[in-house]
């Protein structure tokens, strides 16, 4: 990830929260194999575990699962078996992106465009990249894999039902769906068709590219330009640009 100082987000808690709020990550691996391409990626929802939420330095552990029939799963299992260890030697990458992103027209730059015309289009977005080594839970008969996958399925469902859907069962909200609502045998069968992935994060990088590189007047133009689009995404971007502009000024 190209990180200019003006766009770099150096707060680890902020990066962890972006992951928690946007759990669908892109798992990317680069592993030599005769059965699949060298570089593979899959969209996988993740849980991030943090022992101390108040910590400014703890990077956390990512937990996810992937279909056993996915070619990337087969490569991961092959690598784990070849190493005779469940933790892979190769580094993996997971990319998380804020859903709200948008093209930025030069027309938004109310100071620079009229005065010099030296402006070009760009794109505003926010993203986090997590790097680490992955432990693979592929033996569906082992107690360790059963325990990991059972916890993973429960925790991910609970997080999505309550945090994503808002089904908390309080203040008129619906009750969340529970794994226990499905037949136990059905869940057991599904569990045999997935593998677990646990990534001890050793590097966490993130950026909020929200027009911080522009002058304060141009930033105000971007804020107003997005707001005037009259769209949900435009309103979100307008708020984000203002937040990042205020941070820069402070």
UniProtKB/TrEMBL annotation:
<dbReference type="InterPro" id="IPR007396">
    <property type="entry name" value="TR_PAI2-type"/>
</dbReference>
<dbReference type="InterPro" id="IPR012349">
    <property type="entry name" value="Split_barrel_FMN-bd"/>
</dbReference>
<dbReference type="Pfam" id="PF04299">
    <property type="entry name" value="FMN_bind_2"/>
</dbReference>
<protein>
    <recommendedName>
        <fullName>Transcriptional regulator</fullName>
    </recommendedName>
</protein>
